[in-house]
Amino acid sequence: MLSLLQILIAVFIVVKRKDFIYLLPAKEPQVLRDLAYDKDKRLGYTIHIKEEGKLVPYLVLAKNYIDQGNVLLLRKHLLDPPMPFQEGWKRFYYGHSMIDAFMNKEFINRFPKNVQENIPLTELGIKPSEEHAGMKHIEKIKRKLFLLSDVDVGDDRGKHRMGDDRNLLYFKRKGRVKEDRLAYSDGNSTPYSWWLRTAFATDSVVASVVNYKGRLGGNGVAYISYVRPAFTLPPETEVEEKGNDERTIYVLKADK
Fold it and tell me: How much of the chain exceeds pLDDT 90, in percent?
């Protein structure tokens, strides 16, 4: 008769290693990494964080974003109102864009001070500025808040990418890629386009977007699309349950 250990080994061989965890009961999350979609999606991969005192849902998408050791969070709902990528028809450059400045100088102040202080800098690969265009393939910048890239949301052809950039598992689900890219403003059932940090391949005054159909596309930098902020937090950030019998959510333990 086979021992329990032998049976488990046999099952492990048959089942994909990444799916083996789903044969076991879900564990109550203690830290932020436990909620990540690529750790255990059964827990709902959502954390609620206060913005100006109101709890707002963020998707917990990756336990180790771009191999920098931190957990990736993406705002579930689009920010109202939509805004242009930058002022006027200037050549695309994410590092000096209106959106980059808005997220890191204004929007970040919506979070409690202790959350702001715990957000680490994330190193990102972007299209170089015009000044450095002929010198290097990508430019590296560090930001607390940022937009996702075309690679993050499932494009395998991304040109301006870091060596560790890869598609997020959340956007690679079979048959659901377009649906999972769709995004809405809070309380609205109509999807809208949202900006990415990636330059559009064939036009210097166009930035990449996820459009209202969930497809990758482009929008002129002076036109409007919605902002969907992303940032990271350390994996050991403590979380806890909040709610009642009807609805339970997860929040940051330090987000008081």
Answer: 65
